[in-house]
Every structure is written in C-alpha cells, then in structure tokens.
C-alpha cells in the first residue's frame, strides 16, 4: 500500500516489520523480510534517510520505526506537492506549446497530425524500430483494429533488443473476450503490464523523443493521431504515464509485483484454467454476470458459483475487488 507515496516494496516490508516490533536490530528483522543481510542494511539506511526510522545509539545497533500516522502524513503531503507541480506544469502547456521550447522547431511543428490507417501503422512500426531504451503505452477501448490480434511478436522483438516495454491497461480492456490471454502473451514476450481504472487516453511513447496519441471524436477513434515531438507537452505526457504507473496494479503470473506487495508471497492456486484467467479478467474489467455468462458460455448460476469461489479464495468483499486482487497476486 505504501507504494502510492513512493515507498519501495523492500522498504515497505522492512518498515512494517520494524513497526510491529517497536525496536529491533537488523538480525532481529533478517528472518522476516525476505532480504539478504546486505539488502536489509541498505534498506534500513534508506528508511533512516527518509525519516521512516531512527537509528538508536548503543551496540548492537537498534532501529525504531517512526509512527505510521506521522509517516503517512509527511509522505502524502510530499506526493500532493509533486502532483500540484505536475498540474501547474500541465496548465502551462497551452502557452508553452506555442514556443519552440529550445527544440529549434517552429511551434507549428511540435505536433504533427498523422492521417490514414496505413500511415498510422507505419508510424507505430517506425517508433518501435527507432526506440533505443523503452516503449511506454496506455491502452484503453475503443480500438480501430481487433484488440485480440495483439502485438506479442513485436513485444518479443523489443525484448530481444534489450528494450523495456511498459503498458498500462484500462480495466475495461480486460473485459473484452480474449484480451486477457493476449495481454498474457505479451507478458511472456517481455512486456511489463499494469492495470488501472480510468486510464485517460491511448498513447505510445518512444523513449523521451516522440509520442503518438490517437485522435478521439465523439467518443470514437478517428483515423488519425497526433505525433508529439520534444516539448513541454511531451514531458507532461511522460509524467502522466509515470504517475498512473505508480498507482496501477501489476499483471504478472510469476508473483513479482510492482507497487505495494504483500510482505510474503501470496498463495497461488494449484490450478488456474484458461476459463479462470478469462473470468478474472472480466471481473477486473467490471463485467456483469450476464456478460460473463455470454462470453464464457455459462449459465448465470454457474457464473455465480465460480465468482463466489474466487472471492472466497482472495478474501474479497466485491466482485471487482476479487478480480483486482487476483491480478495483484499475479494469478493472471
């Protein structure tokens, strides 16, 4: 949970273990945080530097945790200041986009309009081929092409070149039949995927050089996109992605999770059928019982039985919570 205020997973584990003990030495904590002694020492040092813990005098060295309510107040205030700076930066874009921003480009050239399906696909391919470090994307309905056709092959090619490929999926995308399986194929190819509610737009970022943002008209995709060159607008799009990535939930069957994770590995069910995986995706996407029944070819009564089983397995109180918790645990 602490990841939303910038606390890493190891820091969270050590801080909460220390909080429960009041005071402890590194040796006291060693068997409770799944870290090596060197990793634990570095993590304790970071907690002290950030004010989450205090190093007490005496030998052996003992540590005391700062009370959680005090830590939360300080870290939330810091994150609010960061978000306020982002909002201020975004509010200035309308003015700054009319300047060259030091790029040497005429303001009118900072944003191109790419029209036509063939041109859009060619631009996507070019961005992927020209990327040197990473590709980042946000994905949400609607789609021009079949979203289940996917690009797992392209993802594998990027991974083979040593590039990072990160995508944030809107939870509504998970409810599309077959979409969860396609996302999983991308993950197998090296994609790092997370899911969030209300992803604001579709886009692809090529390193920090270019962004491709599809044009929306009346809630539908137009056969056109904006190609954004280095500028304040591009910086804001990049910061928006990272802000959403921080709060999004990782999709990962291996149990390696982004953001806040449990202090111990979550229990994985012995068997997850393909239908279970698809059901979890539909739950995380907010699908109704009737839609799930139509998609999976089940009766509504069968849907109720399987949903109840998954809710019980993850200790969830709502259907959506069950789907998101299963995703968080790395079950899909």
Automatic annotation (TrEMBL):
Gene3D superfamilies: Winged helix-like DNA-binding domain superfamily/Winged helix DNA-binding domain. Residues 265-330 form the HTH luxR-type domain. GO terms for biological process: regulation of DNA-templated transcription. GO terms for molecular function: DNA binding. Transmembrane segments: none annotated. It holds the Pfam family GerE. It comes from the Bacteria. InterPro entries: Sig_transdc_resp-reg_C-effctor (IPR016032), TrmB-like (IPR051797), Tscrpt_reg_LuxR_C (IPR000792), Tscrpt_reg_TrmB_N (IPR002831), WH-like_DNA-bd_sf (IPR036388), WH_DNA-bd_sf (IPR036390). PANTHER family: HTH-TYPE TRANSCRIPTIONAL REGULATOR TRMBL2. This is Transcriptional regulator. It comes from Micromonospora globbae. The lineage of its organism: Bacteria, Bacillati, Actinomycetota, Actinomycetes, Micromonosporales.
């Amino acid at each position: 949970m602490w990841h939303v205020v910038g606390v890493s997973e190891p820091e969270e584990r050590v801080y909460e273990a220390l909080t429960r003990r009041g005071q402890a030495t590194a040796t006291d904590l060693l068997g409770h945080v799944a870290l090596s002694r060197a990793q634990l020492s570095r993590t304790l040092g970071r907690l002290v530097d950030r004010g989450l813990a205090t190093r007490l005098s005496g030998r052996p060295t003992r540590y005391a945790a700062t009370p959680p309510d005090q830590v939360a107040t300080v870290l939330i205030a810091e994150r609010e200041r960061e978000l306020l700076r982002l909002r201020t930066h975004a509010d200035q874009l309308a003015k700054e986009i009319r300047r060259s921003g030091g790029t040497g480009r005429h303001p009118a050239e900072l944003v191109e309009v790419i029209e036509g399906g063939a041109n859009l696909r060619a631009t996507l391919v070019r961005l992927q081929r020209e990327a040197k470090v990473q590709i980042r994307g946000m994905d949400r309905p609607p789609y021009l092409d079949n979203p289940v056709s996917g690009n797992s092959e392209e993802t594998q090619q990027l991974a083979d070149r040593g590039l990072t490929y990160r995508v944030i999926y809107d939870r509504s995308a998970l409810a599309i039949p077959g979409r969860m399986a396609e996302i999983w194929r991308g993950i197998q190819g090296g994609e790092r995927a997370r899911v969030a509610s209300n992803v604001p737009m579709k886009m692809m970022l090529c390193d920090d050089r270019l962004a491709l943002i599809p044009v929306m008209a009346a809630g539908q995709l137009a056969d056109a996109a904006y190609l954004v060159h280095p500028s304040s607008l591009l910086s804001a799009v990049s910061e928006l992605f990272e802000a959403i990535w921080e709060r999004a939930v990782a999709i990962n069957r291996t149990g390696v999770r982004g953001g806040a994770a449990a202090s111990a590995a979550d229990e994985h069910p012995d068997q997850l059928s393909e239908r279970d995986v698809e059901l979890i995706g539909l739950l995380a996407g907010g699908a109704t019982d009737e839609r799930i029944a139509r998609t999976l070819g089940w009766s509504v009564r069968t849907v109720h039985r399987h949903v109840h089983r998954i809710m019980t397995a993850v200790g969830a109180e709502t259907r959506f919570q069950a789907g998101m918790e299963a995703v968080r645990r790395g079950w899909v």
